[in-house]
Design goal:
mainly alpha
Length: about 500
């Protein structure tokens, strides 16, 4: 039985094994996004100053580590002069897989550091965020880079992304289970749950990367044997002029002239902000807009659906991408976000069922858009290679540069959200039981009665005006993006010709 299972694993398609890596990230990252703020604010009682300092330092490190790790990983590709080097060679893929096999388990271990109080809350908050994000960045960079390195055609990349979405949907089930064990007063069950998730992630990363490494090591050995045979036939080798090594400053100058890259990161910065705003404030919206209108089980269902549906919905979006192109699908999702938000604004906060649908769908469509944008980045990798005539696609480095500009949205989301809520309603999430404290003092009964509807109204306006603003800004920037249609086909054709045209130069005997 065990041998049969191993045989089945060895014969799994590469796309399935690649997609399974998303499962081992999502089972941890969804729980992290949902509970890390609440854990430090409500359980560890972090003070406001420490929270803001931690988020500020995290903002800087979160932005810098992506291009830093990407540069360390891919800087050699910018000046590769091997005339026989292929764009998606097994050696490049193996380098990515080795990085994933090391950083995947470390990412799972860093996840566990959040759920046990081992230092002052402010210090722990800062160290945990930076350590967790470092390993998550290494995993994301190399996993996303493989999307560009394993395939060139839009069809093949869509297939790889399909399995990523499928496994991410399965990984989102951890949110359903976490809701059953989450208890601020008794943290033991939740900690055991997190340990089990981390162990599953460690085993999964080790097994998946090992399977892929064995597959590409075999391909690399065949390629090496072929090249050795061809080298024996060389009679004369043409001299290739040595190009100077590209520095980081020169690479940044090249990116500054990459028009589509600049418009894309403007749009994606807003998208990252909106995705994390929804994740951070979803429990708050449920509590103050729907808690007295729906049951606990309904709230749990909405929470779970908001994490699973984006991945399932993305399976349909990917089929649309095959027919209409990624650009048209993303633009349609922006229009849909804008239309739904305007309808909700006109309907008001008292339409309970419409409010439930909007809260869930807002997160579903926003997260669904985020899942599609990796396909756009892989197209930018192709365009960067063609425009700058690179010998090798620096996919991890470009993903890192995208993150340099867009990742600050992760930190801006909780900071801007809490500031807007406090400015409009006077509600401070760092104040201990603000409503009960107000009610306990007899002279402040009237202000307490007034604060609750004001808080509800403030949450509602935050819920609808943030997506309206984001959608308008994104539509403006996305309209300037030109890497679609005939231009995209031309770039793909040029990269395909580079892939097929690079073979060792052998003179006819």
């Amino acid at each position: 039985m065990g041998l049969r299972l191993l045989a089945c694993l060895f014969h799994l398609p590469t796309a399935v094994i690649y997609g399974s890596l998303s499962l081992f990230v999502s089972i941890l990252h969804n729980v992290f996004l949902l509970y890390y703020v609440d854990t430090f604010v409500s359980v560890y009682k972090i003070d406001k100053l420490s929270f803001w300092i931690g988020e500020t330092v995290f903002l800087i490190w979160n932005s810098l580590n992506d291009p830093l790790f990407g540069w360390l990983s891919d800087r050699v590709f910018l000046s590769t002069q091997q005339p026989g080097a292929e764009i998606s060679s097994p050696e490049v893929v193996l380098k990515r897989l080795r990085a994933l096999s090391h950083n995947g388990p470390l990412f799972a271990i860093s996840f566990l550091a959040f759920w046990v109080a081992w230092a002052h809350p402010g210090l722990q908050f800062l160290l945990c965020l930076c350590m967790y994000d470092s390993f998550l960045t290494m995993v994301d960079l190399h996993h996303n880079a493989l999307l560009a390195d394993l395939a060139v055609s839009a069809k093949d990349r869509t297939s790889l992304n399909f399995y990523c979405s499928l496994f991410s949907a399965v990984g989102s089930l951890s949110v359903f289970m976490s809701y059953a064990v989450w208890n601020k007063e008794d943290f033991f069950s939740f900690r055991i749950f997190c340990v089990v998730l981390a162990l599953c992630s460690i085993v999964g990363f080790t097994l998946s990367t090992q399977l892929l490494r064995q597959r590409f090591e075999a391909d690399g050995k065949v390629k090496w044997d072929q090249e050795s045979t061809l080298k024996e036939l060389y009679i004369e080798k043409l001299s290739v002029p040595q190009e100077k090594r590209i520095t980081l400053a020169e690479y940044l100058q090249q990116l500054s002239r990459h028009r589509n890259f600049l418009w894309f990161v403007c749009m994606n910065l807003i998208q990252v902000f909106h995705c994390h705003f929804n994740s951070n404030f979803f429990p708050l919206f449920l509590e103050h807009l729907l808690s007295d209108q729906i049951s606990v089980s309904t709230g749990s269902f909405l929470l779970g659906v908001s994490y699973i549906a984006p991945h399932l919905n993305n399976l349909y979006f990917l089929s649309l991408c095959r027919r209409c192109g990624v650009y048209a699908v993303v633009r349609g999702l922006f229009f849909l976000k804008l239309a739904l938000s305007i309808v909700m604004l006109l309907a008001g906060p008292d339409q309970v069922y419409l409010l439930c649908i909007f809260i869930a769908s807002n997160r579903v469509f926003t997260e669904g858009t985020c899942k599609l944008l990796n396909l756009v980045v892989t197209d930018l990798v192709d365009e960067d290679l063609v425009l700058n005539r690179r010998k090798q696609a620096a996919s991890a480095l470009l993903f890192g540069m995208v993150a340099l500009v867009t990742k600050p949205g992760q930190t801006f989301a909780p900071l801007i959200g809490t500031w807007l809520l406090c400015a409009y309603t006077g509600y401070d999430i760092f104040q201990r039981n603000p409503l009960s404290n107000v009610v306990s003092a007899q002279p402040k009964l009237e202000s307490a009665a007034a604060l609750e509807p004001t808080l509800r109204q403030g949450c509602f306006y935050l819920l609808v005006f943030v997506p309206i603003t984001c959608a308008v800004l994104q539509l403006l920037s996305w309209s300037q993006f030109s890497l679609h249609g005939k231009r995209l086909q031309m770039v793909k054709a040029q990269r395909q010709s580079l892939t097929q045209g690079r073979a060792p130069e052998v003179k006819t005997i």
